[in-house]
Amino acid sequence: MSTPTPIAPQGSMRTFGITWAGQLLSLIGSGLTSFALGIEVYKRTGSITKLSLVTFFATVPYVLLSPIAGALVDRWNRRTALLLSDLGAGICSLFIWGLIAAGEAGYWKLETWHFYLPFALSSLFAAIRGPALAAATSQLVPKQHLGRANGMLELANGASQIIAPVLAGALVVRIGLQGVVLIDLASYVIAVGSLLLVRFPSLPPSTQQTADKPSLLKEVAYGWNFIRTRPGLLGLLMASILPNLLYGLVTVLITPLVLSFSNAETLGLILSLAGLGMLAGAITMSIWGGPKRLVRGVLGFQLMSGLVLLGGGLPASTLVVTLCAGLFLFTMPLMMGTSQSIWQRKVAQGVQGRVFAVRRMIAMAVSPVATLLSGPLADRVFEPLLAPGGALAGSVGRVVGTGPGRGIGFLFVVMGVLMAVNVLVVWMSPRVRNLESELPDAVPDKTVTHLPENPGAEGEPALSAASGGSKS
């Protein structure tokens, strides 16, 4: 049999670096728009539920389309997929700019629901970007450097968390929402330009591509079958569902929590300072590369994030919220980067798009639930419980306090306890605990190799061909 062909040739790290830089600017631009619009919606309505609905409509299409997007990514060149994603999202930002411009010009009264459609469409294109970028990373970067590369991707997320809130708070005052969205548009132009400067190596055609090509539906189903038949990966995936649910709640509720004792300018400052935690975690991951025992790392960082959430029971102040949010975000790139390294090691190149997309869909299916739950949980349950004279004011209220925002603080404590319980339950599963030793890596240690793009190529069983290592 032929020798595996490296798919991380000389120059691929440079290609990854250029692509990463473009995506970094794009993330910052998107963060500007998201932060500015979120503050505007809450200021106009004063409703956590309406704020969460914007996030809901920006999340549901992403979750629903992810499996199809992953199958398409495996069929396309990953650079083409990223180009389509950035171009589509840029057009959606242009649409948002048009809505704002028309509203400010007096053509209509701008309402919150006007943003649902463009946010939903942008979410569709983001569903392509996720698996394409993850698969492109393992295609361009040698296996031994995947942890650092994933750290760089988390670094981009961390940088956007720091820069976007501060810039958005300052720019909205000076150039308005229209100007902020125009900057977002410019960031997409740069992202597309960076992709036009590089070329990605293509995966070689498999036997199935020249014979009977599987239907798109079968390729979508393959992603789930791959995970389902590997108990360790399935358990690791299930372990991420609760953290994603709680992260979604935290993302929505941090705004009303801060605004319960301060203003929008302080919120921007807190989110930016807390973003330093994510930046520090991403830098740590990019330099360190993650622990040797990756599964222990994922669960350990998850436990750390749960312990930090207990800080919601402390008296609310700018210092307390900043420290807790910063420590919480510090664990995110470490947890996600380490988990991503496991999946990139255990899943063959040719099927990563569809497998990663199904993984992302299942893990993030709870995000819309989180956004819908956040408003009613805060407005109708936890805030009334900790209001003066509330049902828990004389018991829990003696510890966490009473009044605006204290119900949300107690909810954070409950979420922290749930996170710790989740870690304990997952650790009790031997399939997850021993995942790294029981399931062979899909590629050798020193080089990333070409593998069949489609399951069952060259007469091998579909699942074993995708996971049993390089062909020889």
UniProtKB/TrEMBL annotation:
Pfam families: MFS_1
InterPro entries: MFS, MFS_trans_sf
Region ranges (Disordered): 443-472
Compartments where located: Cell membrane
CDD domains, per the entry: MFS_MefA_like
Residue spans crossing the bilayer: 20-39, 51-69, 81-103, 115-135, 155-173, 180-200, 233-259, 266-288, 308-336, 357-378, 408-427
Organism: Archangium minus
Keywords: Cell membrane, Membrane, Transmembrane, Transmembrane helix, Transport
Protein name: MFS transporter
